[in-house]
Every structure is written in structure tokens, then in C-alpha cells.
Design a protein that fits this description.
Blueprint lengths: L4 E5 L3 H12 L5 E6 L14 H4 L12 H6 L2 E5 L3 E5 L4 E4 L4 E3 L2 E4 L3 E3 L12 E3 L3 H13 L2 E5 L3 H12 L3 E6 L11 H14 L2 E4 L3 E7 L2 E7 L4 E3 L2 E4 L3 E3 L2 H5 L8 E2 L11 E3 L4 E5 L4 E3 L4 H15 L11 E6 L2 E7 L6 E7 L4 E8 L2 E8 L2 H13 L5 H5 L5 H6 L4
Parallel strand pairs: 1-2, 1-7, 2-3, 7-19, 9-16, 10-11, 10-16, 11-12, 18-20
Antiparallel strand pairs: 4-5, 5-6, 8-17, 13-14, 14-15, 20-21, 22-23, 23-26, 24-25, 25-26
Helix pairs in contact: 1-8
Amino acid sequence: MSISSVVIVGAGHAGVQVAASLREEGYAGAIALLSAEPHLPYQRPPLSKAFLKGAMEADGLPLRAAQFYQEKGIDLLLGKEAAAIDRKAQRVTLASGESLDYGHLVLATGARQRPLDAPGIDLDGVLLLRDLTHARALRERLRAARRIVVIGAGFIGLEIAATATSLGGEVTIVEISPRPLGRAVSPATSAFFLDAHKAFGAQFRLGVGIVALHGQDGALREVELSNGSRLPADLAILGVGVLPEDRLARQAGLACDNGIIVDDSLTTSDPLISAVGDCAIFPSALVGFPVRLESVQNAVDQAKTVARRIVGKAEPYAALPWFWSDQGDLKLQIVGLSHGCDQWIMRGDPQTRSFAVFGFRAQELAAVETVNRPGDHMAARRIIGAGLPLSPEQAGDLAFDLRKLAASAPK
């Protein structure tokens, strides 16, 4: 059955790609792309790096020019927030009171900041980074701030910290876990980035939480930690992770659990609704259980899969995950999923600031982390993607030709 109209809620990487891929796949029906923000849909990764540092301006951020949406017949509705879904009527109601009917609905709602429940969170000088408006405010404040506390040592926290130290700020990173990037990378890579950020000039407070933020005349002055110490601060930046933006889906009665639950074709519990990107939890053949991934690659590849299904080319989502993070002069790239890895093999010397760590699950290569080794990253993507055999001994042997093995992968 042909679908006469598609409404896409969310205009980040996933939402824009759904719209673009629908046209690429020959879909001729109406497409409405809803964005709660007033700006043209834009890239998110530069917000914590190039844009925050001032190396990129806002005019370099848009994913597509305004003309693209006009030429492709995509109705881009800026500043229009979806407020409710009427599944029976197949209608989306907007916060403005307007409504849109859909033949198929795609939820690309992304993620929202995980709240930090602490007194003083509303003080002037306590900021977060989730969108362009936040990034503009933070960029302005970073230049004037002298003592900066970054709360959270995940990817966003460390990227912001690297930018802040490069601008001359006195940066302290507070992380409740015992190591930075603790849930995301191997112990060896975590230890490397701990030392690297210390070399950038940052200090760490690990294994402690935030008790309160203290101010004077409404402005932040100190951050109080769970060990009783206090850090002087002109600026505190929240980077304590995100939650899937599934509130709209939950209100509509869709199945949710740490995100909007979808099947291997990215269909929700309602066959007329799909979910893609950061908000969706999907069955992963790589690890054998559902996962939710926060990455541009996952958003874009899931969007392409949904677009193809809408035009009658259904296929299970099976793209190989990969991620990246730029921190100072260090490019961290990850391919695969490290859940359940029971052996990590180092290739190269971290002292040279260029190395790789191979993660094995029951003697099978499952994930590879590289720092400043893009060639090894690309080789690992082909090796894991094709299921080529690589032993732990070969992974650690610099004489073993990874690229030759990768070249043997089927085209």
C-alpha cells in the first residue's frame, strides 16, 4: 500500500536524512519535517569543538541549505514542536494548536539532557550543551570564565574540557565514576585520556559527585563535592549524559524502555510509526540484545533503512556502529560494540599518542578503539564488517598487515 504522506518529528541528523533518503528512493508523497528549533537543521558534533572554540561560525553548521528543502519538496517547519500523537486519527498536534495528518510517522526526537538534581542548579553560570542556543551562550561565557568546572567525563564533557583548556581556562573535571569514559572505552584508552587531559592542563576529581552549587547574588561561586571539598568556579558545565527523548511516544502509548522500542526494521509497536537515532532502542545482532546508540552514523544509517522500508524496500537494520570524538589534537575513533569484551589487546605505544586497542569477545574481534590512527580504524571497519578472522596475537603484532587483511574483504 502506498503511503501518501510522511511526517518526521525532529530535524537532527536522523530526521533530515529520512527526508533526503525518501526523495533519493523516489518517494513522491508529501513530506513534513518538524523542528522545535528556529534554525536550519544543523550538525551537532562541532558544537562542543570547532564552534565552541570559534574555529567555525553558525553559517557553517547547517546540514543542508534552505534551497535543498525547497527543491526536494520537503516542508520544513521550523519552530514547530510536536505536542501529541493521535494514533487512531493518524494525526500529530503541535504546541501551537495546529495539526498534521500522516500516512506514516517517523520519530527522530533525539535525546535530552539528563537532569542533575542539586541545589543551585539554576544559578547564573551553570550551563549545558545540547543545542545551538546553548552553544552560543557557552561560547560567550567560556572566554570570560577563569575557573571552570566540567561535571561529567563522558565524550561531551571531555570535548568541552579540551576546548576550555585550549582557551586558557583553569578546568576541573568532576566524574562520579572511577575513570573517564568509563562506560564507553577500554581501561587502557580511558587511562590514556586521563593523562592526556592532565597534560592539556585540566585537573580531575574522580569517584565523587555534586552535592550543591553555591552562589553569591545569583551567580555561581563554588561547586560542592560529595567528599566535602569545594571548587571555586565562575562557570560550571553539565555533561552528565542524556536520556532518550521518548516522552511524546510514551504519551501516545508506544512501547518504551530506555528509548522507543523498535524491531529490526525500526518499526515501533504501531506499524504506522517508526523511530530512528538517539531515541530508538533496537535489537542488535552484534551483541544479541537491544541497544540504543548515540552517534551520527547510527542516526544516518537508521534513517536510510526507514526510508527504504517506506518505499517498499524493507530490510533489517544491520549497519556496523562507529563513533568518533575529537579532544584537542587527539582523534578517538571506535568501531563495533564492546559489550562483553573479555580481552583487550594494545597495538602500538600510547606514549607516541598514536595507538589502537582491540577488544575481543570469546576470541572474536568485537570492537576497536584507535587514537590518531585513521588507517587502522578504516581497516577495522572492514575486518569487523566482513567478519574476517583476526587473532589477539595478530592484533598486537605491529608486523601483521591489518590493511592487507582488510583489503581481502568482499567488495
